[in-house]
Specification:
mainly beta; four-stranded antiparallel β-sheet; 0% helix
């Protein structure tokens, strides 16, 4: 059974940092591209960052230079390092597996972790 378990969210002041983790199990993690997405009430669901199985990365413009996505295939773990956080980064963050047959689709999701950026 494929499982994705996200963790690491919390409350942080503007300018602070958080590190999100996503533990994957039940499949060959190294063979799949992964994403972090976020959902807010105002903007809906937004793709934040992707990492391919060859470690190539892509980011939404609003987080470039502040967020870093990475993966540890030995530990089956996906990470999102978030620096210089802003109030507009407040959201529920999800890790998701990119479908191997449709790169625009996600076939498994973690449960989400809340990130709140506020003074």
């Amino acid at each position: 059974e494929v499982q994705l378990q996200a963790s690491g969210g919390g409350l942080v002041q503007p300018g602070g940092s958080l590190r999100l983790s996503c533990a994957a199990s039940g499949y060959a993690f190294k063979n799949f591209a992964m994403s972090w997405l976020r959902q807010t009430q105002g903007k809906g669901l937004e793709r934040v960052a992707d990492i391919m199985n060859d470690d190539k990365t892509a980011y939404v413009d609003s987080v470039k230079g502040r967020f870093t996505i990475s993966r540890d295939n030995a530990k089956n773990t996906l990470t999102l390092q978030m620096n210089s956080l802003r109030p507009e980064d407040t959201a529920v963050y999800y890790c998701a597996r990119i479908s191997s047959t449709d790169s625009g689709a996600y076939d498994y999701w973690g449960q989400g972790t809340q990130v709140t950026v506020s003074s």
